[in-house]
Amino acid sequence: MELQQVRAFLAVAEELHFGRAAERLGIAQPPLSRAIRQFEHELGTELFHRTTRQVALAPAGTALLGPARALLAAAETAEQSVQMASAGDIGRVRLGLGTLSSHRVASRMVAATHRRKPGITVEMESNVYSEEAIARLHDGSLDLALVRWQTQPPGVIGRPVIIERPMVAVHADHRLAGRSSVTVDELRDEAFILLPADPGSTMRDLTLQWCYAAGFTPRVVQEAPDTQLVGALVSAEMGITITYDSVMANIHDPHLVAVPLAVEHDPITVYLAHREGELEPALREVVAAAEAAVPTATRS
Length: 300
Prior knowledge:
Elements: H1 3-15, H2 18-25, H3 29-43, E1 48-50, E2 55-57, H4 59-86, E3 90-96, H5 100-116, E4 119-125, H6 130-139, E5 144-148, E6 156-164, E7 166-171, E8 182-183, E9 191-194, H7 202-213, E10 219-223, H8 227-235, E11 241-244, H9 245-248, E12 256-262, E13 268-275, H10 281-293
Parallel strand pairs: 3-4, 3-5, 8-12, 9-10
Antiparallel strand pairs: 1-2, 5-13, 6-13, 7-11, 7-12
Helix pairs in contact: 1-2, 1-4, 5-10
């Protein structure tokens, strides 16, 4: 059963006149009559009763009328969906992000996309750290990700959206809480709370790197699966942690204090990243919405 046959059947069924149906379809009457006869032959039954004076629906034609209309409507919906997807009006984009530091940027981007293209769904997945996110951009299980890197990975491009500064998070009663800044060396006797190694946390790697460069191995008393729990453990006076200013800006705990870390380092940059190459229409629209809503970050 082809759509052309369904359209021909519906025209005759609704007009009950081959001449008017042919005119409605923009074809001559003889080809329409042949098309209906062929359709009936394929179905193995008569769809219309024909006389010299009138055309009427046969029982099989009456039974086919509703499903034929539904089939044609479904075909039109499918065609519209394809056209909208090709234009970037509808679609799905999968976004990976870490924890608190990325929430504000991600929220602005998703809200801007909804205002720009409400038919696009952005599926957000949190606790996806940079190493995993970059691998998933490569394998196609993510379309976009908010990631950090010191060296741009091959096959991935990104726009800087956050420039971050390292901070030491301590309890409000800690000896360093009132300082304007603190050096890494001053942390050698502290108990550290870190994210685990498995997710590939950039800040964990930097913390270890800075401590080793200062001549000591940090005493890690606890690992926690996300930055919120790390902050809660610091608030409970279990230890300290090194984190980002963007993380601390999203933690509202009166028992936590963030002190700038005085350490020489390359800019810590969060990129909105995707695979190299031509973007799918929906992804192209989300990237454009992000460019309008989230300015490119520069180091001040």
